[in-house]
Every structure is written in structure tokens, then in C-alpha cells.
């Protein structure tokens, strides 16, 4: 749901997906599982919905973030490209993945991230779309995509460290 940031919008997109699947059921050739086919339709419906929302958003309402602005002057890296501050111990990541609380924190971190950064991160890491497809869908360059992914990962790491790892181990 964090792709759309609203349960009602998520429900609408799922309904649009099912309607599109019904309307085009003759195109399902059976070369993949039905779930895979529906997931592909859902991915495109999410992207369409976010694009429509971006076009309709009034000027000046940027979702609360400086996603296209300059990076932090100090930055999280040294001149050699190493982290300036290493993360503390994160315990056992495999246990965190099984925790409902972990996923609530993750969803909240994605929700407070600028919408476009969250979308790009989700398309790449959750939906597992390739870079070329993301660039085509969003009308952005490959270098812009990589900058946005970098910023999303930095924000997600900071938020998860602060709200999950340090909160549990701090």
C-alpha cells in the first residue's frame, strides 16, 4: 500500500487491475501463472495512478521533501566513498524480516519519504522492475534514476536506523 499512500487509492487500483484483467482475459496465454500476469497489470496500474496524481498535484505541494534538490553538503560518505559513520549492530536481519513491527516501521519510513523517491525505490526494489523500464515509465534519465535511488536508500537507511535498529538496540 505504501506505493499509493492511501488505502482507498490502493483499493481503487486493485479494482482497476481486476477490471483490466477481465476485459483482456483473452490475452492471458497461460505462459505464466495467473498471479504473475495480474501482478504485471497491477504494477502498470500503480505507475499510471502515480503519474496521474503527479499531474494533478497543485504547484508548490511537493510532498514535503527536497527530492530533486542538492545533496547534503557533508554527505554520508568520505572523499574515498566510504560511510562517514558506520551503522551500529543491526542484530539478526532475518529475524527482523519476520517481525510485523519491522514492516510497520519500514512502511512508515517509505510513507514519509518524498512520494517520487518512494515510488522509484519501490519500482526497483519491491516490484523488481529494471532501470530501463522505470525510466521509460516515469520519463526520467538513467542518471536521474540512479540519483533518486541513492537518495531513497540514504533516507530509508537513516529512518530505519533511527526508528527500528537504534530504538530496539539503543
Q: What would your notes on this structure say?
A:
The protein has 170 residues and is mainly alpha-helical. It has 2 domains: 1-56, no CATH class; 69-170, Arc Repressor Mutant, subunit A, CATH 1.10.10. Helices cover 62% and strands 0% of the residues. The radius of gyration is 18 Å and the shape is globular.
Poorly predicted sequence stretches spanning 5 or more consecutive residues: 59-73
Structurally, how many domains make up the residues? 2
CATH superfamily of the largest domain, called what? Winged helix-like DNA-binding domain superfamily/Winged helix DNA-binding domain
Helical content band: 55-70%
Give the overall shape: globular
> How is the CATH topology of the largest domain named?
Arc Repressor Mutant, subunit A
CATH class label of the largest domain: Mainly Alpha
Gap between N and C termini: 29 Å
Mean pLDDT: 77
Class per helix and strand makeup? mainly alpha
Compute the CA-based radius of gyration: 18 Å
Give me the CATH architecture of the largest domain, please.
Orthogonal Bundle
String of helices and strands: HHHHHHH
Percent strand: under 5%
- Please tally the helical runs, counting DSSP H or I stretches of 4 or more residues: 7
Q: Would you report the number of β strands?
A: 0
Amino acid at each position: 500500500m505504501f506505493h499509493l499512500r492511501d488505502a482507498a487509492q490502493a483499493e481503487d487500483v486493485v479494482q482497476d487491475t481486476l477490471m483490466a484483467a477481465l476485459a483482456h482475459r483473452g490475452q492471458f496465454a497461460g505462459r505464466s501463472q495467473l498471479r504473475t500476469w495480474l501482478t504485471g497489470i497491477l504494477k502498470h496500474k500503480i505507475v499510471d495512478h502515480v503519474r496521474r496524481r503527479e499531474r494533478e498535484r497543485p504547484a508548490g505541494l511537493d510532498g514535503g521533501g527536497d527530492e530533486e534538490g542538492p545533496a547534503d553538503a557533508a554527505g554520508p560518505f568520505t572523499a574515498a566513498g566510504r560511510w562517514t559513520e558506520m551503522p551500529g549492530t543491526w542484530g539478526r536481519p532475518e529475524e527482523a524480516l519476520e517481525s510485523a513491527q519491522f514492516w510497520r516501521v519500514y512502511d512508515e519510513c517509505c510513507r514519509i519519504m518524498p512520494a517520487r523517491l518512494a515510488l522509484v525505490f519501490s519500482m526497483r526494489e519491491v516490484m523488481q522492475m529494471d532501470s530501463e523500464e522505470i525510466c521509460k515509465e516515469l520519463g526520467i534519465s538513467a542518471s536521474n534514476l540512479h540519483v533518486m535511488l541513492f537518495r531513497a536508500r540514504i533516507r530509508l537507511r537513516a529512518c530505519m536506523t533511527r526508528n527500528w535498529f537504534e530504538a530496539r538496540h539503543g
